Structure formats: C-alpha cells, structure tokens
Amino acid sequence: MKLSTYNFLTSMAIKGVKVGYPLKLTINKKEVVETEFNATFVERLLPKLDWSAIYSAAQVVELTDDIPAVQPENIAENEQLMQKLHHLLFEIDVLDGQLECPETGRVFPITDGIPNMLLNEDEV
Amino acid sequence: MARLKLKKIEEYLQCVDGFVKPKILLEQYPTPPHIAACMLHHMQSQYEDLEGRFVCDLGCGCGMLSIGAVLVGAHFTVGFEVDGDAVDVYRTNVQEMELANVECVRADVLQLPQTKWAKAFDTVVMNPPFGTKHNAGMDMRFLEVGVKLATTAVYSLHKTSTRTYIQRKCQEWGARGKVLAELRYNIDACYKFHKRQSKDIEVDFWRFDVSDN
C-alpha cells in the first residue's frame, strides 16, 4: 500500500463513526520502490490530499525533515518539495502493518501490501 | 512509459493469471485479454483517458484491467475487490510483471461513495458482475458507484439487452452514456451450471462522460 492510498482510506463506514479519519498507521515492514516523477500528476492530486494525514504518514516513515507540518502555499512551484511529496506518496510501499480507526480502535490489517477494509455485517 | 501497441498490450495481458476457483455468487468471470486490450487501447487512443491519469478499477478481480491501464500509461491505478482469493492473485500478477504503480484495496465497492474516494479518480474502468444469477442489478450498482468516483469518465461492460435502461439511468445520475462497441463476450464454461462448453453473450462497451457532475 502506497501512502497516496493511505490518504484516501477511512473507517467512515463503521456504524456510529463520525469522521473515521485519519486512520492511525503502523508499519511493520515496508520497501522503497523507485517510480517516475510526474509533476503534473502530483499537482492535480494536491487538492485531494489531507495534509494532516500526509504529515502523520511522514512522521511514521520518519520523513518529517522533508515534509512540513503545515501545507505551504504555492507548493506546486516548489519542485524540490513536489519531488519529496512524490517520494512519500508513491515510493514507499507498506507491506505489513495496520490501520486503526481513531474513534473505535477497530484495526484494519495490511498484509502482503494490501489493506483489508472489509467490515463484518454487524459493524455497518 | 512509452505507449504500447494494441497487439503488445494483449500479449502482456495474456500473462495475467485468472481466478483459481471462480465463485458463482461473485460472478467471477475473467475479462478476456483480447477484449481488455481493445477496451484500454480505445480509452487512450480515442479519449486520452489513461495516460498520466489516476485510474480506479472497480471489482478488479485478478487485475486484468488495472494492469492493462498501467501498461497503456495510467500514472497510478487502484483496484477495489471484495474477494480475498482474487486479491492474492492480483498481488502476484502485479509482482510478476514488476509494476510499481498499481495496487489493490480489499473493500466493498458499494461502500466507496461515502468515503474520501468520491471524485478522487480521473477515470474509472470496470467489468462489473452482470447481475444475472443471484445478485440482480449488481452491474447498475457498480456503475452508480463509478459515476460518483470519477471526474472525467467511466468505462464499463453491460449486457446489450439492458441498453435502453442504462441510457435512462445514467441520465438520472448526470452522466452522458455512449455505446462504443458491441461485443460477443465469450464466457468459458467455468461453472457447473454452464451446460455448453462455451457461450457467447452480447455485451455493450460503454463510456460515460461524468465531467458535468
């Protein structure tokens, strides 16, 4: 699971959960893969990113030197930061870990790189 | 990645493994590599809906369309699939083809519009369960989800017999539907209730323009 996907995952579908975001990320095993940087793609993704989730992901993977705590203005004009953002979002692959609902503590496992967001019938 | 020729896409897609034990309840028919390659090639050559795009594959199964989309130039593709066995094959397929920009989330497709995935993608592709056996109307529920997740276009396959109904429903959802091709979809007799060896069904290949909603 790339951290770009993490940005979109929520536990909103659980009965009674109001926000369910951001999920608490724990990583047991990850790998770094190299992928092509596409500035336009990252720029178009910016409005869909929740910076609080992005920064908390950066904390988990210890990249807070690269990713500021508050989203800077005119970020698209900062090529260096855009490349660092690309690295965080698309080059770190979480192979094993978990996502935890901030409200209920429900755990969603990440196994072999795939987050399992399925809920039981009595949870929805 | 340079764009691949149609024949080359099909060659690659022939290496994508299918379901180990297809499940009747989930209507797990693999998308034939030839049909997948033609669909994906058309999406790019006629509409430029794949190259550099953020793409979603609903009910992705073993990843035929997800992998194809990336081969045709999609920048990143996320597939959603409810079945754990299919998800495992998807992961293996992606690993064997050494693709870094395609991945899968195990989730219930029908719950996605209420999440942050709404309007997250440029393009949604799908080969939905046709909703024949035990889950009537499932293809329409998938299509409705697709319309809510895409900002540009949704591509899907539906039985030709439902064409008028789909045209009406998609207008209700604010999408403009167009049949791009009529296919003879060959479903190999992979379940016991298929009496004949192999059976052709008539299927429409649709594009839904969702850029207005």
From TrEMBL, chain A:
InterPro entries the UniProt entry points to: Trm112 (IPR039127), Trm112-like (IPR005651)
Gene3D superfamilies referenced in this protein's UniProt entry, alphabetically? 2.20.25.10
CDD domains assigned = Trm112-like (cd21089)
Where does the UniProt entry say this protein principally localizes? cytoplasm
Q: Which GO terms describe its biological process?
A: rRNA (guanine-N7)-methylation; tRNA methylation
Q: Which family does it belong to?
A: Belongs to the TRM112 family.
Name of the protein: Multifunctional methyltransferase subunit TRM112-like protein
Q: Please give the organism.
A: Drosophila lebanonensis (Fruit fly)
UniProtKB/TrEMBL annotation, chain B:
Q: What GO molecular function annotations does the UniProt record carry, in alphabetical order?
A: nucleic acid binding; rRNA (adenine-N6-)-methyltransferase activity
What's the domain of life for this entry?
Answer: Eukaryota
Q: What InterPro entries does UniProt report for this protein, alphabetically? A: DNA_methylase_N6_adenine_CS (IPR002052), rRNA_MeTrfase/Polyamine_Synth (IPR051720), SAM-dependent_MTases_sf (IPR029063), Small_mtfrase_dom (IPR007848)
Residue stretches making up the Methyltransferase small domain: 38-136
Family (UniProt): Belongs to the methyltransferase superfamily. PrmA family.
Write the protein's name.
Methyltransferase-like protein 5
Name the source organism: Drosophila lebanonensis (Fruit fly)
Species lineage: Eukaryota, Metazoa, Ecdysozoa, Arthropoda, Hexapoda
- As recorded in Swiss-Prot or TrEMBL, the protein's gene is named LOC115633037
